[in-house]
Amino acid sequence: MRKLILLIVAGLAVGALFGHLMMSVPGYWLIRVGDTSVQTSFWFGLVLLLGAFIVLHFALRLLAGIIRPLGRFRTWNSRARNRRAMKRTVYGLVALTEGRWKKAEKALVGAAGDSSTPLVNYLSAALAAHYQGHHEKSQEHLNQAQLTTDGADTAIGLMQAQLMIDRQQPEEALAILSRLDKKLTNHPQVLKLLKQVHLSVNDWEGLRRLIPRLAAQKLIAQQEREQLEFKAYRELIIFEAKNPTNIERVRGLWADMPEYLRGNTELIVLYTEALLQANEEPIAERLLNHSLDNHWDARLVKRYGLINVDAARQLAKAEKWLQERPNDPELLLACGRLSLRTGQWEKALEYFEASQRQRPNGEVCAELARLYASLGEHNKSQLYYRHSVDMLAKSLPSLPQPSDANDSKEGESKKAVKKRA
After folding, report:
1. How confident is the model at residue 3 (pLDDT cuts 50, 70, 90)?
2. Residue 231 to residue 236: CA distance in whole angstroms
3. How many CB atoms within 10 Å of residue 28?
4. How do residues 263-275 score in pLDDT, each as one tens digit?
5. CB atoms within 10 A of CB 101
6. CA distance 21 to 27
7. Would the CA dihedral through 351, 357, 361, 365 be positive or negative?
8. HEC sequence for 96-120
9. Domains defined along the chain, listed by start
10. I need a surface site. Which of 20, 114, 261, 296 has the fewest CB within 10 A?
């Protein structure tokens, strides 16, 4: 009740104030359009404006009420189409996984226009077309993916590279991956695919430079890293050593090689051979000397005995090793050969014979036969030559010989004679 009284009082006060303003503030509105003019009092014109505003407001609300259902219908229709597209996309992805390439491609491409993820549709469709052998169509889908989605260059490039690898086109894949690698340094998937491509094209230099980056990103285990590094350096040394003029390149590879690989016997032998072909025997001798002090291996010992740098010093070093390994047949052979270089024939005979006693060997027999022949002891020379040939014959594969064929023919002739009898 109090609120009603207050409202009535407030209304009367406002009305009285408004009436006072109308009496104390006279004025008029004059609107002229061409030769026509309309004049009205100020307060009546103000009421007309207020009424026009109210009418316009309700008209706009009515119009919005008419338009809103159309917008809602469009939104509903868009969502419905998107749901259908998602169902077809899922169907296409399932078909792709199950190997039904044609159905997968059709479903994925058909749903791409209404899908909220057209990139997924077109990339998957490109893969389905690729599996069908439709390479041009696959590229068309990739191009469409590029048009529908901004910022998808990396995903599309990776897909292209993977498809090129599957098509046995590693050079094209390498070009794509190299471009991506410049743009995205140390991207894990790019690095993995680069490793795969370098191996497929035997790009050992590229692989050698890539390995530290793979390891830094923890994309390869330590064991795989060691295997890849060994293979890369071995193949590079073999390739460069084919031309003796590339010895500086071989030296650079040896210097860049991880420390643990410099103790690998196979790599030491390869590097030694490269040095010898380039007439750098002193460096090769120092390398073998140092390697044998740290890692004993029969192949290195044998190679040490064949190098001719300073035979007397080499023999002294070999005899020092012999004190620690008195029964090493390969070391005894090396000492015999170094003794020959120093002109100590009797000592060479002793070393060769000692090596032969420890392990009978055709190569040692040949050395003894040659030395005895040079000393004029031809009977012993022929004896060791026969031993050498016999040992070599034992290593030959078992194959039919003319004597076996003759024995077989004689047996058949005896059977024929018995049948006639």
Report:
1. confident
2. 8
3. 11
4. 999 999 999 999 9
5. 19
6. 11
7. positive
8. HHHCCHHHHHHHHHHHHCCCCCHHH
9. 313-394 (1.25.40.10)
10. 20
Token couple for 386:
């026969």
Q: Is 89 exposed, middle or buried (0-12, 13-18, 19+ CB in 10 A)?
A: buried
Asked if 138 and 130 count as a contact pair (C-beta separation under 8 A), the reply is yes
Q: For the whole model, what pTM was predicted?
A: 0.70
Condensed to tens digits (0 to 9), the pLDDT of residues 312-335 reads 999 999 999 999 999 999 999 999
Residue 349: partners with Cβ closer than 8 Å, 6 or more residues away: 336, 368, 371, 372
* Token duo for residue 339: 């003794």
Largest distance between two CA atoms of the chain? 166
Q: 31 near 37, Cβ under 8 Å? A: yes
The pair phi, psi for residue 33, each rounded to 5°, is -125, 105
Residue at token pair 């052979």: 333
Average pLDDT, stretch 125-148?
88
Q: H or E stretch including 356?
A: helix 345-358
- Give the C-alpha separation, 315 to 326, whole Å: 14
In the numeric block, which tokens belong to residue 226? 């060691």
